[in-house]
Amino acid sequence: MKTLRVAIGLALAVLATLAFGALRFPAPPDLFLLVVASMARGGAVVPALLAGLPAGLIEDALQGPQGLLGLHAFSKILTGYLLATIGARTIVEKPLAVGGLLAGAVLAEAATLTFLLWVLRGDLLAPAPWLLLGRAATTGLLGGALHAASRVPWRQRRDARRRMRLN
Amino acid sequence: MASPSLAARRPEILLAVLLSLCLVGLSLQVRRPGGRTAGQAWLLAAVSPFVEGVTALRAGAADVGTWASSRRRLLGANRSLSAEIERLEGELLKLRDAERDKMRLLELFGAQPSPPAGTVPARLIAIESSGPFRTGLLDRGSEGGVRVDGVVVAPGGLVGRVIAVGPRTARLQLLSDKTAAAGVLLPRGARAGVAKGDGKGGIAVEYVPTIEPVEKNDLVVSSGTDGVYPNGLPVGRVSAMTRKSTLFWDIQLEPATDPRRESMVFVLPPVRRADVQGGPAAGERR
To answer: Which residues pair with residue B157 across a beta bridge?
Structure first.
């Protein structure tokens, strides 16, 4: 079931990333991170790691530098582990806190990528700060909104409406 | 008693295995300056003390006669190389004159050079940006005649180059990508430099000596010496220049084209290496 969720999530992330690209959106959210974060909820480390690998590899194929498979996979696995570890030690339930955590995860992932590129290639390829902050903000906002939507008891509300109609 | 603690450590072990796999995979792919992969570079760094020791031993035991003959040989090679450099400099000057004459004639007669055979029109359907990387997606691929290393141009000038081709789509690396580079010529004195993307949408030109006159709004064109881009394509206009050090200018370019505003581009066939006049390979700094 989790595998199916990850597969659907990644497929949607690919389509939405391409759509953001087609719309020339300057700071698109990191949708692959949202998939990893959803698997890391409640401190599930292993599912987060296993989701991070395909998410990162797909992101490498879609957006990464030419012929360099594994760069985003590394950072996504590490970020997934961090998110799951935080989820296991603290209770992050408020949408604002979830958004903040995701924005922080985007910044941490960017730092990991920059460090990794520096180690591998020997030159410092830091992303533009305002673009990075924009990406962190949009990812945090979207993640917070999705988390808030997932907490709404849709089924109970629908049942209540149906009961009212019957009465 | 060991197995429960091992089971408890399962996530950390999995993390270490996955990260190691990624690192090994990456180190086998990344090419360092000089053409070696990062894995090879690390391996060489690990064995270099041993190699250096052996080399020092061998050098210490070298014969004086060998040294003399080597010196004679080197002097001869130096002389022939100096003559070759002089000849090549002469050829370079001739080529620059010919290029200037061609541009002047084109200006005088109002003629436009026709695109080379195999030029393919394509739509730029998406622009992707991930950290310092800037790539785009074309709606034509190998079935439409697009090939890897194809040069992507817009009416304003150079956009980038094709780095991956699928049957119906192709990925291109924009010039503003932080790992992109191209050989360029400055208009005053036809001085060659290297244009590099800054990863933020702009382009910087390096290795232009401060004795070279540079003015704002100067049009910088591709030099064709990098083996990737043909010569004469507009790259951008000088928007700012500062003295980076006592030797070189730090020149910022306003790109000739803004990929975000271009929907239609042309893909020129890749430059054949044999056509290159000389100079370092560019296009990708890796």
So the answer is: B154
